[in-house]
Amino acid sequence: MPKMKTKSGAKKRFKITGTGKVLYAQRGKRHGMIKRTNKQIRNLRGTTVLFEGDAVKVRKFWMPHG
């Protein structure tokens, strides 16, 4: 039986906390900052916790050892 591997794209995008929650960087800050308001840019800083339904899929399929 082959080993289960972590998806390399998921490694870069998600982090699993000690309690099992999944953190992710917010979308919308890669390019096009000129058209976003300062409030939008400010509110998109940092990381947030993924919704639990989506987090279950990330942990199960993409990061089985996380």
TrEMBL record:
Belongs to the bacterial ribosomal protein bL35 family. HAMAP family: Ribosomal_bL35. InterPro entries: Ribosomal_bL35 (IPR001706), Ribosomal_bL35-like (IPR021137), Ribosomal_bL35_CS (IPR018265), Ribosomal_bL35_sf (IPR037229). GO terms for molecular function: structural constituent of ribosome. The keyword Endoplasmic reticulum does not apply. GO terms for biological process: translation. The keyword Ribonucleoprotein applies. GO terms for cellular component: cytosolic large ribosomal subunit. Keywords: Ribonucleoprotein, Ribosomal protein. Coiled coil: none annotated. Gene3D superfamilies: 4.10.410.60. Transmembrane segments: none annotated. Pfam families: Ribosomal_L35p. PANTHER family: 54S RIBOSOMAL PROTEIN BL35M, LARGE RIBOSOMAL SUBUNIT PROTEIN BL35M. This is Large ribosomal subunit protein bL35. It comes from Salinarimonas soli.
